[in-house]
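thought: user wants a sequence for this fold. calling inverse folding tool.
action: design(structure=
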């Protein structure tokens, strides 16, 4: 009997070691996949003069190009096969979420369970290919019209260049979409978010070096540099605090008799995040506001042109840009939160399972109460996003800080780090929990 117990204990230990080894393999897979992604950001698109393109990009930077280049980890500036990065997939996913909220057919498909979710994912992939093809073709046409001091950006323009560029860039986007899904399934964390995170973090050393170079050139002294560093650390701490903040709505379940036993009677809560919309509002707002600047940069419109006049008011640091940017962030924060969380559906779900909020009648009153609470915390969350995103704008206008210290990049880096660490922690807790269960079974057999 003792030998049998010892064998079971040995098996339990081997099981715990196997689980720890599984987590290690998942982490190594994530690192390997991100390494492949970073290597791909240095494989250039055929037919482009890299010296001329780098000169053109430097001249035309400052608009939406910088934001896309930040998300692509510098791939757009180098014009590589990952120039569009995973942005077409993100755009397709957001559009599909909006369409699911507006289309009864897609909404019914989403409620069908795993099968419906797989169909929606398939539609998202098809839409990603379409968006990537359109953007890649527009990029190829734009590249053909660009000239630098060293000559044209495209060595041999024409139909073959456009077709090869579309195939190359769309292929790169599809590969990143597949790679992100593989990271999610076989690694730790959300694959798409980790790809964007890796791109931003990889460019941070260059941004820090640029900031130190500005300090060396005398644009700000040591105390100002120290102040900016402390402010960045403070903003990161504030982001962590706000992303973890939530309003817990208490839910009570009544007691009910099942046979000779009383079941239920416990209380639970609905966690409502302070920032339900995440980084979607800053991304959408930046895209809309910086689009006129990019159009002017590519077309070379004159100063008297109407588009050029609008773009002049939408430069970084201008009051019009600040007001519109903040207003659009607030709008998208409420809009996206309304799509993600439906108070009526949650109220119906509570009533279906017999739950109720103390002091609130089930049904419509519960839905109205949830909507009231959600509106108040979303207001706080929207103001938090406005503060985080506009504070770097003031710093850019005042100290000419690099674009990578913007609020959107900080939000992505901090939130993805928190989510990944939380998933690793949940894996470790699950392994410890399984080990405790096996130990309790062994003690039970000994007794």
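)
observation: tool returned 447 residues.
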């Amino acid at each position: 009997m003792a030998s049998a117990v010892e064998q079971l204990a040995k098996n339990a230990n081997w099981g715990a070691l196997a689980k720890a080894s599984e987590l290690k393999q998942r982490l190594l897979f994530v690192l390997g996949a991100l390494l492949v992604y970073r290597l791909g950001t240095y494989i250039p698109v055929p037919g482009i003069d890299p010296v001329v393109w780098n000169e053109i990009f430097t001249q035309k930077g400052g608009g939406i190009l910088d934001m896309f280049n930040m998300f692509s980890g510098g791939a757009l500036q180098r014009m590589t096969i990952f120039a569009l990065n995973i942005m077409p997939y993100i755009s397709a996913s957001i559009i599909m979420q909006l369409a699911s909220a507006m289309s009864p057919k897609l909404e019914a498909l989403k409620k069908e369970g795993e099968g419906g979710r797989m169909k929606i994912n398939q539609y998202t992939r098809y839409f990603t290919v379409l968006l990537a093809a359109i953007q890649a073709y527009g990029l190829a046409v734009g590249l053909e019209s660009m000239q630098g001091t060293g000559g044209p950006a495209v060595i041999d323009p024409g139909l073959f260049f456009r077709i090869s560029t579309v195939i190359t860039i769309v292929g790169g986007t599809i590969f990143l979409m597949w790679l992100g899904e593989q990271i999610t399934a076989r690694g730790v964390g959300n694959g798409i978010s980790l790809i964007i995170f890796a791109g931003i973090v990889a460019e941070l050393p260059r941004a820090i070096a640029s900031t130190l170079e500005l300090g060396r050139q005398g644009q700000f002294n040591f105390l100002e540099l120290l102040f900016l560093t402390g402010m960045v650390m403070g903003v990161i701490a504030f982001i962590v605090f706000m992303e973890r903040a939530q309003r817990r709505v208490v839910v009570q379940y009544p007691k009910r008799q099942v046979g000779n036993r009383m079941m239920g009677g416990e209380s639970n809560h609905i966690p409502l995040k302070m920032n339900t919309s995440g980084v979607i509002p800053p991304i959408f707002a930046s895209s809309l506001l910086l689009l006129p600047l990019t159009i002017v940069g590519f077309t070379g419109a004159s100063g008297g042109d109407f588009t050029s006049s609008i773009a002049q008011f939408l430069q970084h640091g201008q009051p019009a840009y600040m007001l519109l940017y903040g207003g659009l962030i607030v709008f998208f924060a409420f809009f996206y939160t309304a799509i993600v969380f439906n108070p009526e559906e949650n109220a119906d779900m509570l009533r279906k399972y017999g739950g109720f909020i103390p002091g609130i009648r089930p049904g419509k009153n519960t839905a109205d109460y949830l909507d009231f609470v959600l509106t108040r915390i979303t207001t706080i969350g929207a103001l938090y996003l406005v503060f985080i995103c506009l504070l770097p704008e003031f710093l850019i206008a005042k100290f000419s800080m690099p674009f990578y210290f913007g609020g959107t990049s900080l939000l992505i880096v901090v939130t993805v780090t928190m989510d990944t660490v939380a998933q690793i922690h949940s894996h470790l807790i699950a392994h410890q929990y399984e080990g405790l269960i096996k130990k309790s079974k062994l003690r039970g057999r000994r007794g």
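thought: summarizing for user.
answer: Here is the designed sequence. The CA atoms of residues 391 and 407 lie 8 Å apart.
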